[in-house]
Design goal:
The complex is a heterodimer of chains A (about 170) and B (about 425). Chain A has about 170 residues and is α+β, with helices and mostly antiparallel strands. Helices cover about 45% and strands about 10% of the residues of chain A. Chain A has a four-stranded mixed sheet, covered by helices on one side. In chain A, β3 and β4 (about 145) form a beta hairpin. In chain A, α4 packs across α5. Chain B has helices spanning about 15-20, 25-35, 40-50, 60-65, 90-95, 100-110, 125-140, 170-180, 210-220, 220-225, 260-265, 295, 325-340, 345-365, 370-380, 390-405, 405-410, and strands at about 75-80, 115-120, 155-160, 205, 235-245, 250-255, 275-280, 290, 315-320. The chains are: A alpha+beta (about 170), B alpha/beta (about 425).
Amino acid sequence: MNALRQRYDEDIERVLAKYPPDQKRSAVMPLLYIAQREHGYVTREQLDQIGEILGISSTDVASIVGFYTLYHDQPAGKYRIQVCNDLPCALRGADVFLDHLCQRLEVKPGETTADGQVTVEAVMCLAACHRAPVFQVQSRSEISYHEEQTVDRAMLLVQGWRQGNGK
Amino acid sequence: MNEILLRHRQIANIDQLPIYRQHKGFETFQRAVTSMQPVEVTEIVKASGLRGRGGAGFPTGLKWSFIDMKNWPHYVAVNADESEPGTFKDREIMESNPFQFLEGVMLCAFAISANTAYIYLRGEFWQLAAELDKHIEYLERENLLGEKLFGTEYGLRIYTHLGAGAYICGEETALLESLEGKLGQPRLRPPFPPSFGLYGKPTVVNNVETLASVPLILERGAEWFRTFGTEKSPGTKVFSLCGNVEKPGNYELPLGATFRELIFTHGGGIPGGRKIKAIMPAGASSSLIVADDKALDTPMDYENVPSVGAMLGSASVIVIDDSVSMDWLINKTMHFFQHESCGKCTPCREGTYWMKHLTERIHGGGANWSDVILLNEVATSIKGKCLCALGDFATEAVTSSIERFRSDFEAKTQVAPVAATNKVSA
């Protein structure tokens, strides 16, 4: 039994039970989410471990990580602020919001703050076009929506993380 | 009106099972399982004229009737990947009227004799998936899901499956590939999912809104459903309204309501004293309609929107005011489609890349008119040559804006050599 399986055996069993026994590969996406709980990105060792659990190659697992944007193969901030600046959001001020947020955090899109807490990313549509500016926060264990945002509200959220009393 | 899909705005706490059951929730499902043949359910949905709400508008009952009865098991795969820029209707239905949606999934499963249904949600709907899991567990405890339902031989399990950020997984065969644990890349069709779907087995793939329409059709009848909407587009539809409009949001209206009614009566018009310039009725995949009186008075249904040069699609209506220049707009949509092209077929993979570079150059002010011509040529070369609709979608805003808002591009480009001016080759 490999390390990932040992650590999350119950969760992994629950995931595998969703799919037919001869179609274990279907569990690759949920298992990658479980793996990301550890470090916020998928490590080389985890690729092997997931491959071993599902009976597919590490390369197959890596191709999934590369294809889908919510899986990461590099470390980043503890919290990823993912701002949508697609057309509908941009019509409601998302580009300006992203610019100002980056200025306040002293980063460019894609960069991580000096304290390693926050990475700001521009992402594609989040299905919240009527409540722009909007971002989601991807942390190790979950994804949450933050709608009708101002830079001040977003900075309060960041302050909460920095003081270690918020999620 | 919030008669069918957005009933939660009329009935408080319908997102709680006891309240949903007080409003006849799951009575229809029980009646179907205990006293109807699966094909009878399909026939009623057929008679209602319900058309797929994900974008293509394919008749739902007909799709169900295509399920291959010689190949087993059967599956339902619910498309909850809602990723079209401008669309946010399925999310509200699943969040606020979840049991009606789930009953729709269950009725579909019974109609096609499936014992397993997967709800494929975009990864961003992480919290929503967790809520749905709780609702599903509740239904299992109440013996509305599970084995031997209501003392019959019929059993059903529903599972959620999270995607991880890929627009293409809203394409039905890419969704199935993704659900199988592979890259979300479309398959060659035919064969279509009702004969070769999930794990190669007969599968119905339906959008959330489509399935959420089904319980009331079964409860109140096909004729009742047809009292809403038009003859060819019966029923109500959730219109997602966004962009330069006073009151963006979801509005449930009968199909055939006009753009004017949606944008001005319900949406409160254009903010800041600006004028409406263009409409994208089907999200970022849409052609740009010139928002003149003819367009504004056009009924929003599957048969009439084409008369003004666009499609109804998923009815995600993006309003564009006169402060917006089209070179900026198509640069936005091209960034989206270039990022979301799955890379499987060449015209889309390479074409979106080149179109993005051209829209960037034009928007940046460093382009000649010949670049606009080239952009139009690349777009027309992609159209009709891709495995799925994404490639075509990427070209719609580009070609329609060059054709219909030409002066925006003339203003943005430098004077070109005489031989290359004046004509956009189409």
